[in-house]
Amino acid sequence: xxAGTFAYVLSCTVRNRVRVRLKRLRQPRYLLGTxxxxxxxxxVFFRRRAYTAGAPSSLLELAGEWAPGLGxxxxxxxxxxxxxxxxxxxxxxxxxxxxxxFFTAPISRRNLVHYKLLRSTFGGLxxxxxMTVMIRPGSLGSGLRFAASIGLLISVLTLHxxxxxxxxxSSRRLGAAGLVRRWLPAALIAGGxxxxxxxxxxxxxxxxxxxxxxxxxxxLRRLTTTGLGGVVLWPxxxxxxxxxxxxxxxxxxxxxxxxxxxxxxYVWVMATDTAFEEAVAARAEKNVGRRGAPxxxxxxxxxxxxxxxxxxxxxxxxxxxxxxxxxxxxxxxxLGRLLAIAFALALVLGRSGHGGIAASAALMCMxxxxxxxxxxxxMMRNDLRRDLANxxxxxxxxxxxxxxxxxEVLAPAVVLSAVAIVLALGAVALGAQLSSSAxxxxxxxxxxxxxxxxxxxxxxxxxLCQLVAVNGMAVLFPAWANxxxxxxxxxxxxxxxxxxxxxxWLTLLVAILPAAVVAALVVLAGYWITHQVAVLLPAIxxxxxxxxxxxxxxxxxxxxxxxxxxxxxxxxE
Length: 573
Description:
Radius of gyration: 28 Å
Low-confidence stretches: 49-58, 288-299, 435-439
Structural class: mainly alpha
Order of helices and strands: HHHHHHHHHHHHHHHHHHHHHHHHH
Number of strands: 0
Mean pLDDT: 75
Largest sheet: none
Oligomer: single chain
Helix content: over 70%
Distance between the termini: 33 Å
Shape: globular
């Protein structure tokens, strides 16, 4: 009876979501987005089959030789981070409707956990089918095996992450027994991590002496499949080996161990006491009540970035506000994690014979510099894209639209520019360790001080141009932009984002062209006077030109923002 109720709710949820998506197609923006997404998927995942028949199947067979070891290592790192780094304890989150209907019904807490497991399992099956369609194995049997394997892999990970988070949530109620239950798995994971670190340190000489990539991966495969490394990574390696099973016999050999892992994780999740189940229910009810109640001031608000004076430019106050907003989802803890990952990657690259740890860190600084400049403006959203959902409130402010627009884009511009400058200086400081064979043109670029100086001047201008473009798109086409903190999902929404991204890059290209013309004229003038090709002065001229363009664009977009109707902003989904 309970299982039938849950199946009915799940089927209604799926049917209603499909119905909503189909109704959306009546609107031109969703229809056009769907068409763009279909063309993209056809060109990327299907059209290539016309001239590479059987390639995905051979790729699975080729990857099956080294994927279990390497994939098992990656999976172990993910699980270790879940256990060793404190995170959220909200493993099971119920919606408002689920709390109102299920928590008042004669349904036990254990059955509610079963319901959430059913939903997560269904989501894993859908994901496995989508991945199988994208990869398109060569035969029906291999496709069915791959879909089933991915579904089982997602189920094991979902159960394990749920059990880990709920173990932390329930350990506080159980005293000393709770501490043992919480820290014993973490101690085992830490012991396994130390064992793997010792294994790789002892084999660092062999890894660094590998002349080619196949030799490196062959040695890595040996370390992760034999000896102590093979013992530690056995369950993770088995999970990854199942999707890459080339034959039915290999699939059947791995299947019992994977099913055993599914059963063990399920028994672990369900072996909970009443206090644990009530804690999950209480947390869900508290979260739902928090959503429905008026928003209260957080007692642990993010600290102010600087002291705001009583008088000054309005843009400064908007920047101050948006920097506080940034502090709510970017913290020193996150920065520490990123630095730890970067240091680990630099250590691995340095041990692999790429010019030493300092040289590898310099190359990584350059890579992250370009990522910050060209991807950061799309990722950092503490600007008008987030505040546009509150346009009715913004229009009550006694300020011009251009002033509001400039203040909104300056906050992420300041942060991204600071990050880019730090990365560029780090690359220059570490660039002396780069060897000619490891770096090539990067060594020459870092060796001439004018090139890093030009990059330091151009990076803020490029970041500002992209921020003006993305926020301008939100002002000109508010129905197409993602406003607010939440983001819409769906096949059609993905097509809309692709169109918006194409428009942003086209706008950036148009903004760069006048700056490039001005820089070229400065180069010609300098060469005519000094008979040398200057770099720094053209960079200054190009950056100044882009800054003027951004100012003019802010004035024009501000007038559009002043005329924007509040009803033009679609409600956040």
